[in-house]
Amino acid sequence: MNRRKLPKFKRHPKLKRIEGGWRKPRGRFNKMRLGLKGKGKVPKIGYGAPKDERYLHPSGKFEVLISNVKDLEKIDPKIECGRISSSVGKKKREEILKRAQELGIKIL
Known about the structure:
Number of strands: 2
Structural class: alpha+beta
Radius of gyration: 21 Å
Largest sheet: 2 strands, parallel
Order of helices and strands: HEEH
Number of helices: 2
């Protein structure tokens, strides 16, 4: 999988003192909103990933949420990998990991 590198969308430089990620630039004379050169990138529809690459983990496989051992039977190890749900306890998590290793399923 050769994934395109997207620009880091940053908050408008004037608002650096405010923590957090991207916020849409607003304001009548905002240079970033107007799309002027050198004022930062703004997310647009053209930055979207190709259809066949959407929702993929960086490993190139689709993620499937696992909450019990039975969920492992539904996974195709060639195109899918599992992610254990956060609500699963330690004992059940160990059972899932053991069964996944037997089936050859990658757990994230």
